[in-house]
Amino acid sequence: TQKISVTLSSVIIAKFFCFIVFFTTKLRRISLITKFSMSYISSNSRYLLVAIAATMFMASCATTHNFYVDMSVPEEGGSNFAKMTDESFETITSPSVSRDFNGKLTWWGNPLLAISNDGQSLAYNVYKNERRNIFVKSITGIGSSVQRTFRSNVNDVTFSPDDEIICFSQVEGASSSLYTTNATQGAIVQKISPQNVADYAPRYSTDGSKIFFARQDGNNYSIWSYDIKNQIFNNYCYGMSPVPISDEEFLCVRRNSKGNSEIWKVNYVKGTESIIVSSENQSYSTPSLSPDGKWILLVANTVPNGNKKEENLDVYVVRTDGTRLTQLTYHRGHDCSPIWGRDGKSIYFLSQRGTEKGDYNIWRMDFNLK
Questions:
Q1: How many CA atoms lie within 13 A of 22 on its CB side?
Q2: CA dihedral over 267, 272, 278, 280, signed as positive or negative
Q3: What is the pLDDT of residue 64?
Q4: What is the distance between the alpha carbons of residues 173 and 53, in angstroms, rounded to a whole number?
Q5: 69, 87 contact by CB (below 8 A)
Q6: Would you put residue 85 in left (φ > 0), alpha (ψ -120 to 50) or beta?
Q7: Cross-strand bridge partners of residue 262
């Protein structure tokens, strides 16, 4: 989504004008109450009053802090943050964050970042020429990015286990389809989804034989898979954002009766299900399993100091048994779409931090929990 903005100087001028109007209006009211008239104030006095108003305005501006420019905050002490992209060169596609009619914060939980299994490449979504496409660059952040899809409205991204294929979904009017393309060269794509469906959030099975994904039908979501060799679709259960964690299990997101999202683990071979994390006050999305299988990265809404106006998205982590839920980011901008580095010691995520206007970039942070 493109943003419409005005220059900082225009905002300051407009705010200053409003401040002067407010100041003189208050003065007029005081004058009426005390039976004085503005006409009795000399022109020199008026200039003095304007100067006083200007001084007060500038003082108020000086105390206003643009929190977006902060690269980290004290609560994040001990973690090192590194900026991987530059908003002046490319516009990183951000998850849609909004509020519903009840004022509840909602966001799109599709995987917008992916790291190749050899740990050398980072794939992400860029808005360019009024289109959203996948770009790939070195995990070091050095060098230029390479465009790997040439579509119109790409929604998410994932690598195959052998790093030869990229799978993604593309919005097509009221529907959304899954496609695959070569990860390093060419522009040919293969469509997987049938016509008139809404398929999202693809993830390869651990052995690479299947692609798991979520299919939307009205307000309902279910987990499906596509058998690559036999070209067969299978439906499993209710849920969104599947993350295969073994040959018979996956993580997924489900909404409870209060509309909050929870993280579940499903064993589709044994037919068992267990809830990992749930809350009456938070929703959780975008699970990502650590390389050692002990931790799950999550995105959740945070309300700092109980102030609903400052509610934002942060990165959390939880043990796979549901214990030790820990908040990792505390920046007032949105932090989202986290994924693990292949060493399990670093996390890559999208964040509005470190910019003047809250533009999204890819950031890396250390992970030190044991």
A1: 10
A2: positive
A3: 63
A4: 53
A5: no
A6: beta
A7: 254
Which residues contact residue 339 at a Cβ distance below 8 angstroms, ignoring those fewer than 6 apart? 111, 113, 114, 115, 288, 297, 347, 348, 349
Cα torsion 267, 264, 166, 362 to 10°: value is -150
What was the pLDDT predicted at 316?
98
Any bridge partners for residue 312, and if so which? 302
> Cα-flanking dihedrals φ and ψ of residue 8, to 5°?
-60, -40
| Strand partners for 246 | none
Residue 68, helix vs strand vs coil: helix
Name the token pair of 251.
């993580």
The encoded tokens of residue 307 equal: 């102030």
Query: Which position has the token pair 């299994």?
Result: 117
Question: Dihedral through CA 183, CA 187, CA 191, CA 192, nearest 10?
Answer: -10
Spatial separation of the C-alpha atoms in residues 354 and 360, rounded to whole Å: 9
Cβ-contact 322, 343 below 8 angstroms: no
Q: Which residues, other chains included, contact 256 with Cβ-Cβ below 8 Å and sequence gap of 6+?
A: 262, 278
Walk along the chain (370 residues) in steps of 10 and give the mean pLDDT of each run.
33 43 42 34 46 48 72 87 94 89 86 95 96 95 90 96 97 95 95 96 97 95 98 97 97 94 97 96 96 97 88 97 97 96 96 94 94
**pLDDT value at residue 102:** 79
DSSP 262-302: EEEEEETTTTEEEEEE--SS--EEEEEE-TTSSEEEEEEEE
Give the separation between CA 359 and CA 350, rounded to whole angstroms: 10
3 state SS of 69: helix
Is the whole model's pTM more than 0.85, yes or no? no
CA-derived radius of gyration, the chain = 25
27, containing H or E segment:
helix 8-33
Structure tokens of 18?
A: 């409003």
By the 10 Å C-beta count (0-12 exposed, 13-18 middle, 19+ buried), 225 is classed as: buried
- Give the chain's length: 370
**Please, are residues 49 and 38 in contact by the beta-carbon 8 Å criterion?**
no
How many of the other CB atoms lie within 10 Å of CB of 102? 7
Cα dihedral value 243, 244, 246, 247, nearest 10 = 160
